[in-house]
Amino acid sequence: MINYDDTIAAIATPPGHGAIGIIRVSGSEALAIADSVFVPHRGKKLIGRKSHTLTFGKIKSDAITIDEVLIGLMIGSSSFSGEDTVEIYCHGGKVILQQVLNLIVQNGARLAEPGEFTRRAFINGKIDLTQAEAVSDLINAPTELARRAAVSQLEGKLRQPLDEIREELINILADLEAEIDFPDDVEDSGDEKQILIDKLNKICEKTNYLLKNADAGRILHDGFQIAIAGKPNAGKSSLLNRLAKEERALVTDIPGTTRDTLEVDVNIEGFPVRFIDTAGLRSARGKVEQHGINRTKKTIDSSDMVIWVRDISKNPPQIENILPQEIKEKKEIIWVWNKCDLPHKPTKSFIEKLNKLCPQVNICALSGEGISSLHNLIAEKLSKKKNIADDDVVLMRVRHINLLEKTADLIRNSLKTLKSNALAELIVMDIRDSLKAIGEITGDITTEDLLDKIFSDFCIGK
Ligand SMILES: Nc1nc2c(ncn2[C@@H]2O[C@H](COP(=O)(O)OP(=O)(O)OP(=O)(O)O)[C@@H](O)[C@H]2O)c(=O)[nH]1
Ligand SMILES: [Mg+2]
Predict the structure, then answer these.
(1) Does 453 reside within a domain?
(2) Which of 46, 272, 393, 450 is the most exposed place for a label (fewest CB within 10 A)?
(3) Domain containing 371: what range?
(4) Are residues 123 and 152 in the same domain?
């Protein structure tokens, strides 16, 4: 178990060279430790200086100068972590940063765990768990839309409605418990039940509102994965290169060129979309190809959509067998006819029948013709998921979505119980469980294991 009373330190800027590199130190001894290696250019040491000030000076090891630096001070609860914090702005060289960090550690600090500064901010009550998670989501936001959603969560736009729901549930619980404990003292005006139903319905509306963008939010966080699959030589890799606007995948006229999966990330309508080129599906010729085909099947399984590429110059199979087993169960399929520069083999009636199964796009990966139509079709499908107003709250993490869906289910269940005139005790149980689920989202109820899991995804120094 991690100790949160000691002082931690980490390099907060990415590895490599840069104009500035920052070392962060947080904890009760932060100022004293920094003072032991810092010689200010003018005036007093760090202890005794005001919060939110910058001091110029040198970091020294014995009498040897390691670097000329600026030090930022944030004292006590006014810092991000809620503890005394020192930020040392060094020149951004990895040797300098490592040396300064070593000195800080030799003088009493411990190396920080990933996300520990944010974890301390959470433990010190500066932010709730949704805001702590938003810090990581903001840093990792792959698109502008994802950044907007993360920043609004960081500002507490998810915490506020959850706090409101929690408060309303606590009031309802208090009323119900009073009725159970002191049935004679509670005035029964006859409207009591209707008032309770109205209150619970209002909570349901709030949870539904919060969940309405969950589908889009999940994509903003996890990305939308599209597998490019089909028979060997259909032109899958050529299509991937077109979508990537660069020669990423190897293209040859030998069937079975692609063995491994290859990923390309593209921003479509503000959504992070990952296209994955795969090995062509056929009866494998050898061990390596078999591995590639197994990988293709796994990729198809884990994808949100499949682009099925087919060479239009080849005779199509029977319409009954047109959708191969591997993609039949997929909800989202786009059929791409490639090599449209060559003579077309499928008949008009075949195309019409296929249209009933999935949308079709004609392309020529060689010239790039039709790629914009394919792009637009994907954009159109994605924009259906994107109904996000500027002030909307967007739940992005599956953890939040699952727990809020659980809350909504429990409230709906308590409404059913209430309408069927069952015992108040049964309703109380559901309300208590829904409070617990809300508490798990905000971090009011949590375990070390859950916190370890959440913060292990953070970078060191955040
Ligand atoms: N005429 C024509 N040839 C194409 C087109 N697109 C791809 N090709 C050619 O088709 C051959 C196969 O292309 P790839 O992109 O490697 O096909 P693939 O589906 O990735 O093939 P595997 O990785 O072997 O499964 C290459 O010779 C390409 O130049 C097209 O639009 N028109
Ligand atoms: Mg290929």
Answers:
(1) no
(2) 450
(3) 224-383
(4) no
Give me ligand 2 centre to Cα 181, in Å. Answer: 71
Query: 10-residue block means of pLDDT along the chain (462 residues)?
Result: 88 96 98 98 94 98 96 96 98 97 98 97 96 96 94 94 96 87 61 89 95 93 96 97 96 94 94 96 87 93 96 90 83 95 95 94 97 96 81 92 97 92 87 96 93 92 90
List, as ranges, residues with CB under 5 A of the ion ligand 2. Answer: 236-237, 257-258
Number of domains in the chain: 3
Task: Examine the domain organization and report whether 235 and 370 are in the same domain.
Answer: yes
- On whether residue 458 sits in a domain, the answer given is no
- Does ligand 1 have an atom closer than 6 angstroms to the CB of 55? no
Sheet of 85-92, strand order = 38-40, 53-61, 64-74, 85-92, 18-26, 8-11, 110-111
Report which ligand 1 atom has the smallest distance to the Cα of 363: 31
Whether ligand 1 lies within 6 angstroms of the CB of 425 is answered as no
Q: Are 237 and 356 part of one and the same domain?
A: yes
Type of residue at 35: D
Ligand 1 atom at minimal distance to the Cα of residue 364: 31
Is residue 306 classed exposed, middle or buried when 0-12, 13-18 and 19+ CB atoms within 10 A define those classes? buried
Same structural domain, 68 and 123: yes
Q: Give the CATH number for residue 60.
A: 3.30.1360.120
Residue 128 is classified by DSSP as -
Give distance in angstroms: CA of 311 to centre of ligand 1: 9
Residue with CA at minimum distance from ligand 1 atom 13? 235
Q: Is the pTM of this model over 0.85?
A: yes
N- to C-terminal Cα separation, the chain:
19
| Ligand 1 touching residue 237 (CB < 6 A) | yes
Q: Which helix (H) or strand (E) holds 228?
A: strand 224-230
